[in-house]
Design brief:
Layout: E1 2-6, E2 12-17, E3 25-30, H1 33-38, E4 41-43, E5 49-54, E6 60-63, E7 71-75, E8 83-88, E9 91-97, E10 101-102, E11 109-114, H2 121-131, E12 135-140
Parallel strand pairs: 3-11, 5-12
Antiparallel strand pairs: 1-2, 1-10, 2-5, 3-4, 4-9, 6-7, 7-8, 8-9
Length: 144
C-alpha cells in the first residue's frame, strides 16, 4: 500500500510503502513534551520503505532535543513536522506523522499512547531499529 503525506505547504513530502496488512495502521502517540506540544503521533515499521522529498531544504530545520538521537524535520514555512529520523550505526531510520497523511481513511489508524520517559539511550536506539522504517531515502531539489 502506498501512503503519501506532506507538511501543510508541501515543501516536505513523503511516500511510504506500507508492507503490512492495510486493515490497520498502528500509530504511536508519544507523551514527550515536544510531541505533546505538536500532537506527535508516529507511524513506522521495519518492513516499510520511505522516500522523502524536500522542495527547498533551506526551509527545513532539524530539531533535536533530550538525548539528541532523533531529528524532527520541521518545515520553517508552515511549522509542520512530517518526518523524524534517527541515524543508528550508519543507517537512517524514520517515522512519519499520522497527521501529515493524505487520503488515508482514519478508521485504519489505531492510536495508542506511548511513553519513553527514562528509557536508556541504548534501549531507545534498539527499539527504533526494531520498530521504525528501515529503508529511508531523502531527495532534495537542486537549486536553480
Amino acid at each position: 500500500m502506498l501512503i503519501v503525506g506532506r507538511c501543510h505547504c508541501g515543501n516536505i513530502r513523503f511516500e511510504l510503502t506500507w508492507a503490512q496488512d492495510a486493515a490497520e495502521i498502528a500509530v504511536r502517540a508519544c507523551s514527550c513534551s515536544f510531541c505533546q506540544k505538536h500532537g506527535g503521533a508516529w507511524i513506522g515499521s521495519p518492513d516499510a520503505s520511505l522516500v522523502v522529498r524536500t522542495e527547498d531544504p533551506s526551509r527545513v530545520s532539524a530539531y533535536a532535543f533530550g538525548t539528541r538521537t532523533a531529528d524532527f524535520h520541521v518545515c520553517s514555512t508552515c511549522g509542520v513536522v512530517p518526518v523524524v529520523t534517527s541515524r543508528i550505526e550508519e543507517r537512517l531510520y524514520a517515522v512519519v506523522s499520522a497527521h501529515a497523511l493524505e487520503g488515508v481513511d482514519s478508521s485504519l489508524l489505531r492510536v495508542a499512547p506511548v511513553s519513553f520517559d527514562g528509557e536508556a539511550t541504548d534501549v531507545r536506539l534498539a527499539r527504533r531499529q526494531r520498530n521504525w522504517i528501515s529503508r529511508v531515502d531523502f531527495h532534495t531539489r537542486s537549486p536553480p
